[in-house]
Structures are given as C-alpha cells and as structure tokens.
Write a structure and sequence with these properties.
520 residues; 13 helices; 2 domains; alpha/beta; four-stranded parallel sheet; 13% strand
C-alpha cells in the first residue's frame, strides 16, 4: 500500500488496500469501481501480480490495463508519454472509466522512474532565446536595484539590508527570489521618498519614475502615481493593493492566451510584455519558459507523475518540485482554473520480486480482518533548533504523546541520535517511523503481518528490485513490511508526510493509506 506524490520525486510502495492502525478490523474503504490497475504486458510476473490483486480485492479484470512498457525500473520521458500516458488515457476513455477512477495502482513490472526530458531542436532554440532575454532583463533589473539602493541610502543613513540567496534552489526559484529582492529594494526607496516634503519630494519622485519605467513599464508607473498622489488612508492603501491585483490579473490574462513555451510570435509578445510590465515582466516570462524547458531536477517517480495523468505536458514544468494539490493545506483553486483538471491518487504494489508483491495483498487483508497488533517504534533524534528538521523531529515526539493518549498501542520512542539498529532490537513491529541513515537499511525490525513503516531519508526507493540495493524500501519489503514509502531522488524533508498528521489520520479508520498519504 502506499501513497503517492506530494512532490514530484516520491515513489510509492504498495497496495491501496483498506487499512487502519487501530487494533480492530478496519473500516476505511475505496470501492473496487474506483481502482484501476496498471500492469506491464511484457512481464508475466507483472500480469500475475495484477490479476492476484484484482481477484483478492474484487476488482473486475476489465479494470486491469496491460500496457506495452519497457523492462527495468527507469523509462525515458518519450516512452512515458507514448507508451504509458497516451494508452492509459485511451483505455480509461474507451471503457468509460475516466469519471469513476480515483486511484491508479501500478504493479510489479511497471517502471519506477521517468528520466529528465530531452529537448527537441525547436525547444533548444526557444530555450536559447529565452535565456538571452532573461540575461538582458537581469542586467536591467540589477541596474534598477543598484540605483534604488543608492537612492535609499542618500535619503537615510541606514543601508538597505542585502538578502542572501538560499542554497539548493532550482533556477526558477532563484529567479523568483531575485525578482522579490529587486522589488523589496525598490519599495524601500519608495517608502523613504514618501517621507519627504515638497519641493524635495518632486525632485526625488522624478528619479523614482525614471527607475520604475524600465523596471515595470506602464503598469509600474501607474502604480507609482497612485502611491504618491493618494493619501495614507486605509482605503487608499486598499486601492493600491487593488491596482497591484489588477495588473497581476492583466499579466495572467495576457499569458493565459498563449501556450508556453512560446513557439511563434515571440518578438511581438515579449514587446507587449515589456511595454506593459518592463524588464520585470520580460524576466518573469522568460523564467517561466525556462522552467518548462529545464531538465534541472526533472527526473520523477512514475507514480507521482501519473497523478497529473490528465494534465497536458505544457500545463506544468517537469523541473523541480510541484505542490501536491490534494494536500489538506492547499487552498481550493478557483473555478475554471487549470487545477480543476482531475487528479488521480497513485499507489504501487511492488517488491523485490513478484511473489513478495502478491504476498503484500494477502498480509494486508489478514491485518484488515484481524486488526493490526504489535508495537509502535518512533525514532526521533532529540533535535531542538528551530527549523524544518526540528519540526519533523517534534512531530515524532508529538505522535508518541498522541498514541499514548488515544490508542492502546505500546509505543517505544528513541529520542537521541542513536537509532534502532541492533538485530532483534525492534520485535513485533506494527508501525515504524524514524530517521536518519541514508540508504542503509538496519536490520533491527521484525514486522507483524500488515506492518506499516517509513524511514525519512533521501532516495530510499532508488531501486526495489536490485539485489544489492541497500536502501530502506527494498529491504523492509523483503523482510515482511506490508506498506512503506520512499523517494527515487532528493525530495527534501518537507515532502514526506508529517508523522503525526499521517498516522493520526490512519487511526481514524476512515482513510486508506493512499488517501492518508495524499492528504498529508
């Protein structure tokens, strides 16, 4: 059972079976009519796993899609589009299942990973053009930033604090941070200028106007005019915000009328954007094009990618991470937006071999019928600093408190850098959540039938078939865990489900694992 894709690099391991972690028969249920099984027609074992799952779960064999897929755990982007996405869409539509299917179950034999895309010659041409435009706009914006910083320094002795760029960002995230930095610098110079009185105010306003015109075009000039020719009443500040929103909407409408990346009429559109929004608009448009054409961090798990099965290739960039639209904290999209396009939950029924994959179904159903008993092991690190690492570490400690107060499970919390790692140290496992040992499974656990567990570390699902693979997922499955999750690449910690949220949702008995995963 598992889960699928909060970010675009998560991979998932196993059966969307109904499941709960309370020690009683579970109530959570996805109906058989809502599940579609995806198998590799070129693998006898893949078909056997698919049919075994369908038989045990009462899923009609007509809801098994047998696709001509490559062998191995990795497929290229062209094969993903041609041999997986297109025929899968066609199968759903042909069988009139496109409105009823909520979950795809990829099974043993379906590739685990999709490679970064190779650009066509036309896309390379567009990328070079966008890079050139971005470089010119960046030079103009850096000049605006320098002039705005100098102007602010002349008006007040305190310099404008320089913002540092965070590490480990994608190129698009760095571009967005740069635009925010330039805007913050300009806004500081505007703020200091507004404190002046005439006639000095008129002189400095002219200097601001000369900066803003190339920076944000006619839209920026209109906003600057409103800022300086209205009072400081709340209603006027509301009016300023409204103008900002109107120009942002105008930009969206302008770009919404074209398909990105722009393949024809590029010069005219870029000129239109520059007239209305200056170098800021040109830089932003070029950055969006480059995001769609980037191969930076553009590999992905097949399962996470299939969440966007109905989304055409130009609707999202494959580089970097994508927000999980099904996450409980994501704001509901406006009607008519792209994010109203259907999303699918995707789970994987897989293992080191076909027999292990089939056994996952059997032991999951056994646990559902008899209840999942055993001990819960939580492996925190005792972190105290205020950052994402501590947030997740605290979630493990909070989960220990929650389980103690609200369930009858015995829990063992390890709250130091020492892990459960000695053989036999963690017997009778019903649930495990912990961290951090990168791609080095520690054979301390004896799993109960139906046990659930995950280790928060990068790349724990790089492979689940290679005999020499040392990561968590392959080895835990081989040793009897029924459900786990892991990533095929660097997901960053906040892509993992928070332990308290994920497990607490499961204890309600109202959600399957795949639903609990997507929600958290």
């Amino acid at each position: 059972m598992p889960h699928a894709g909060a970010d675009r690099v998560h991979s998932h391991v196993f059966d969307v079976s109904r499941r709960t972690v309370v020690p009683s028969p579970c109530r959570a249920e996805l109906s058989a009519s809502q599940v579609l099984i995806v198998a590799n027609a070129n693998s006898r074992d893949s078909l056997m796993v698919a049919e075994h799952y369908a038989t045990r779960r009462g899923i009609p064999f007509q809801q098994i899609v047998r696709l001509d897929l490559p062998s191995g755990e990795t497929m290229n982007r062209a094969d993903y589009a041609r041999r997986l996405v297109l025929p899968l869409r066609q199968a759903l539509q042909k069988n009139r299942l496109q409105h009823s299917i909520r979950v795809l179950v990829t099974v043993y034999g379906v590739p685990l990973r999709v490679e970064s895309p190779n650009l066509t010659s036309e896309e390379e041409r567009v990328r070079r053009d966008a890079n050139g435009r971005l470089d010119v706009a960046r030079s103009q914006l850096e000049d605006v930033e320098r002039r705005a910083r100098d102007l602010a320094a002349q008006l007040e002795s305190n310099p404008v604090p320089a913002k540092t760029m965070e590490e480990r960002l994608t190129a698009y995230e760095r571009h967005a941070m740069f635009l925010l930095r330039v805007d913050d610098t300009l806004q500081e110079s505007i703020k200091r200028t507004k404190q002046l009185n005439p006639p000095a105010l008129d002189q400095w306003y002219s200097r601001l106007e000369a900066m803003v015109r190339p920076y944000q075009g006619s839209a920026g000039i209109a906003q600057l005019h409103h800022t300086f020719h209205q009072g400081e009443q709340a209603s006027d500040r509301d009016g300023e915000a409204q103008i900002r929103a109107q120009y942002a909407e105008g930009m969206q409408l302008l770009l919404g009328s074209v398909e990105l990346p722009i393949r024809s009429g590029r010069t005219e559109l870029y000129q239109q954007v520059e007239d209305l929004y200056g170098a800021y608009g040109v830089f932003g448009l070029a950055a969006m094009e480059l995001k769609l054409l980037s191969a930076e961090y553009a590999d992905a798990s097949v399962d996470s990618e299939l969440t966007l099965l109905w989304w055409d290739r130009n609707m999202y960039g494959v580089a970097g991470r994508q927000v999980n639209p099904l996450y409980h904290g994501v704001k509901k999209p406006p009607r008519g937006s792209r994010r109203e396009i259907p999303l699918l939950m995707v789970s994987r029924l897989d293992g080191p071999n076909g027999n292990v994959a089939m056994h996952l179904v059997d032991q999951s159903m056994e646990a559902e019928q008899q209840g999942l008993s055993g001990t819960i092991y939580l492996d925190a690190r005792g972190l105290t600093q205020s950052d994402t690492y501590n947030h997740y570490d605290q979630s493990l400690r909070d989960l220990d408190t929650f389980l103690t107060q609200h369930t009858t499970y015995r829990t063992l919390l390890e709250n130091t850098e020492v892990r459960f790692h000695h053989p036999g140290e963690a017997p009778d496992v019903a649930l495990y959540v912990g961290w951090y040992r990168l791609r080095h499974y520690e054979d301390a656990f004896t799993f109960r039938p139906g046990a659930i567990g995950y280790h928060m570390a990068s790349a724990e699902a790089v492979s689940i078939h290679t005999a020499t693979e040392s990561g968590w997922c392959k080895n835990a499955l081989e040793r009897g865990i029924a459900a786990t999750l892991g990533s095929i690449g660097e997901p960053y910690l906040d892509a993992f489900p928070e332990p308290l949220e994920f497990v607490a949702l499961l204890t309600t008995g109202q959600y399957s694992l795949v639903e609990a995963y997507y929600l958290t």
